[in-house]
């Protein structure tokens, strides 16, 4: 292994594990999905409430998932690719989407950068027939709602009611969508807002349990 290249060493470690670990040899892309979801969630926790050391570790765990998928794909009978192909494709995409960095375009504000990014992205996705193409239904519900509101806005669709009234479960869905729309209008992340409130609730529960134990 090339000790001067930690990423290459990680990829080669993954290859060795795939070759020699009986459990790993049986795993396919679909089997890895739950682990990918779990590791992604742990990265989010580390970003929002963890330490730099915890974030470094969780990013490593997430990178292992990427290396794992790439190693599985490298041995496929049809359309194989490896981690070098993944990295090469990513580099090419990022260069295309940053013409103000790598080409002659000018972007002096975040808004101008976004215009160039969206233009490059649209050019890449010309085969798509709907603004909804590429939106994953596996996103958490609040994050998906925030994403779909932005897509709906592009085609002139408004999902916001003027006076929400919760009398049925469907009404509750409308009210929740209204809340997400209000968050989006303010530039807030509805999913993160709920997670942070839930963390406060968890703390309250733990405090109440501690008080109960102390009161016995």
Automatic annotation (TrEMBL):
<dbReference type="GO" id="GO:0006203">
    <property type="term" value="P:dGTP catabolic process"/>
</dbReference>
<dbReference type="GO" id="GO:0046076">
    <property type="term" value="P:dTTP catabolic process"/>
</dbReference>
<dbReference type="GO" id="GO:0046052">
    <property type="term" value="P:UTP catabolic process"/>
</dbReference>
<dbReference type="InterPro" id="IPR011551">
    <property type="entry name" value="NTP_PyrPHydrolase_MazG"/>
</dbReference>
<keyword id="KW-0378">Hydrolase</keyword>
<feature type="domain" description="NTP pyrophosphohydrolase MazG-like">
    <location>
        <begin position="29"/>
        <end position="102"/>
    </location>
</feature>
<dbReference type="InterPro" id="IPR048015">
    <property type="entry name" value="NTP-PPase_MazG-like_N"/>
</dbReference>
<dbReference type="Pfam" id="PF03819">
    <property type="entry name" value="MazG"/>
</dbReference>
<dbReference type="GO" id="GO:0046061">
    <property type="term" value="P:dATP catabolic process"/>
</dbReference>
<dbReference type="GO" id="GO:0047429">
    <property type="term" value="F:nucleoside triphosphate diphosphatase activity"/>
</dbReference>
<dbReference type="GO" id="GO:0046047">
    <property type="term" value="P:TTP catabolic process"/>
</dbReference>
<protein>
    <submittedName>
        <fullName>XTP/dITP diphosphohydrolase</fullName>
    </submittedName>
</protein>
<dbReference type="GO" id="GO:0046081">
    <property type="term" value="P:dUTP catabolic process"/>
</dbReference>
<dbReference type="InterPro" id="IPR004518">
    <property type="entry name" value="MazG-like_dom"/>
</dbReference>
């Amino acid at each position: 292994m090339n000790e001067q290249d930690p990423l290459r060493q990680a990829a080669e470690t993954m290859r060795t594990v795939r070759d020699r670990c009986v459990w790993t040899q049986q795993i396919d892309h679909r089997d890895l999905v739950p682990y990918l979801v779990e590791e992604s969630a742990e990265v989010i926790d580390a970003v929002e409430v963890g330490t730099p050391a915890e974030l470094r570790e969780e990013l490593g765990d997430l990178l292992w998932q990427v290396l794992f998928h790439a190693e599985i794909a490298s041995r496929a009978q049809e359309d194989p690719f490896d981690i070098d192909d993944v990295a090469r494709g990513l580099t090419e995409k990022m260069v295309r989407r940053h013409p103000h960095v790598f080409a002659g375009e000018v972007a002096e504000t975040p808004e101008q950068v976004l215009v160039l990014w969206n233009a490059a992205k649209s050019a890449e996705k010309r085969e798509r027939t709907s603004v909804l193409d590429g939106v994953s239904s596996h996103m958490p519900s609040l994050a998906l709602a925030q994403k779909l509101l932005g897509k709906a806005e592009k085609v002139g669709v408004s999902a916001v009611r003027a006076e929400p009234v919760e009398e049925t479960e469907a009404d509750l869905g409308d009210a929740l969508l209204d809340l997400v729309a209000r968050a989006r209008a303010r530039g807030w992340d509805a999913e993160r807002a709920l997670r942070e409130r839930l963390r406060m609730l968890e703390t309250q529960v733990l405090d109440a349990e501690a008080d109960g134990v102390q009161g016995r």
